[in-house]
Amino acid sequence: MGENVQVRQRIEDASDNLTGAERKLASALLADYPFAGLETIQTLADRTKVSAPSITRFLHKIGCQGYQDFQRCLIEELKERQWSPIDIRKATLPTKAGHLADYVERAAIVARSVADNVTEDQFERVCALLSDESRSVYVLGGRISESIGTLLSRHLRQMRRHVFQLPGDPEQWPEYLLRMRSRDILVIFDFRRYQRNLEEAARLAALERQVRIVLITDKWMSPISGKASEILAVPIENGTAWDCWVGAVALVEAIIGQVSETNWEATRTRIEAWDALRLNHERVDV
Fold it and tell me: Domains in the chain, ordered, with CATH?
């Protein structure tokens, strides 16, 4: 297996060829990923009731040379979770100045990869949740991803009632958390260099308000993944110093299109009413 394939993905890809004991081990590793794999092999064996030799055989199946190699891969993933543009730039070749077509092709590859990372079943489930008007929808993003959340929330507001975007100031979040009820949906965008305040908001929403969390993240998996009901992991690497948001935007636009078509007549009626109430800045009263 390639070095760039996440250990999580290796485990999931090997699932059809695992023994009963290996499936139990895989479940334990994925339930607290990646931290469960950072224990000693004996601690992991004792906790899962899977022998150390069986763990070693399992690791060979997922492409690791042994437990040390397995932990090295996990540690590298943890480091990459916190990479800044400076760190990313060190690991990539510089792009040629002025090569717009080259960048567009890289971005296109990222966009096409979304369908390889998000299954149709996942996509349909999330769209069904966001289409359910018995649920309020809350949207929360991070430093950069807040703008992608705005793209989602503004479109959803035109289609249905009870859509709220949490503001950037965490001091205002309690007002929104207090509104949340069980069955409501909180969509969170959280990409690498994950934000602690987003994780805390997710914890409070899930544990105190019993809402369902839809997490849109990257392949390194935000810490919020342990609290999420649905996880949509999109590609963000494009060979430059900067993570690419084209995949996340493509996913959001696909969600917007699907939700609007779920009940087009209701969507059309609301958009007509919405447009009728908009201020017409071009009209001049005399």
Answer: 7-81 (1.10.10.10), 100-277 (3.40.50.10490)
